[in-house]
Specification:
By secondary structure, the protein is an alpha/beta fold. Helix content is 39%, strand content 22%. 18% of the residues are buried.
Amino acid sequence: MSVQNLIIYKLTSLYDILEELDLDLNFKIIFANSEISLNQKIKNLNDYLIISNKEHSDINCQFVLDNKPINIFKLVEKINIEFLKLQFNSQSEVKVNNYTIDLNSREILNKETRLKLTEKEINTITYLSKSNKPVSIDELQTKVWSYQSDIETHTVETHIYRLRKKILNTFNDNEFIISKNNGYQIK
């Protein structure tokens, strides 16, 4: 797991207080006193939260501390909750080619166009996207549908057909899931 970085933006006294508690916190504390300093600090960071006393529309991943005074334990709890939210949101998006799959809302997005998907459709796409070779129908039955491979069923083919049709109708993409002799693939 990467280090969580808490950037205190223009709140010197808060930085001083949290700096004293540094050993008891599970995040690294960084201070930024200007926009230039802030931009330099976040340039090389992946996992960060910026805490400031007012909302800045041009800043992502921020927590606004506008109710003062606040109990320090409550503040640390709120900061940890914000880090959990950021982690949850970052894990909920999967990139597949030109598409983004939002696992929370069960949608696939391309630019501004969204398409609602079922849980099985999402599971199928994510499973296919992790493989760099065609995935057989038997493997999809076992891994996505939890069926035994000796059962005669066309569930996979039917679902893939419907999913490809939805993608074609919404995104005009006929090449998203490709049929091969030995299975299906997302390239």
